[in-house]
């Protein structure tokens, strides 16, 4: 997690990505077409499953952001 925190990724970005995952999942489900409907639904569900992972990732980053700096 140190490398992720040092890369500039913060909790707000992870939470936003989680919300975007849900929106993308809904969009994929709504735009399914023709005979490939079942595959589009499965892909929508797969993308929707990213949301909890990204939210937990955001929570870990948030906890790290709130933690007082360690004394050297």
Give structural notes:
The protein is mainly α. The protein has one domain (9-65). The chain has four helices and no strands. It has helices spanning 2-6, 11-30, 37-48, 50-66. Helix 2 runs antiparallel to helix 3 (37-48) and helix 2 packs antiparallel against helix 4 (50-66). It starts with a helix and ends in a 6-residue tail after the last helix. The relative contact order is 0.20. Keywords: Membrane, Transmembrane, Transmembrane helix. The chain crosses the membrane at residues 12-31, 43-61.
The percent range for helix content is over 70%
Radius of gyration: 17 Å
Unreliably modeled segments = none
Number of domains: 1
> What structural class do the secondary elements suggest?
mainly alpha
Q: What composes the largest sheet?
A: none
**Tally of DSSP helical segments:** 4
Report the principal-axis shape. Answer: rod-shaped
Number of strands: 0
Average pLDDT number: 83
Strand/helix succession? HHHH
What is the beta-strand fraction?
A: under 5%
Distance between the termini: 19 Å
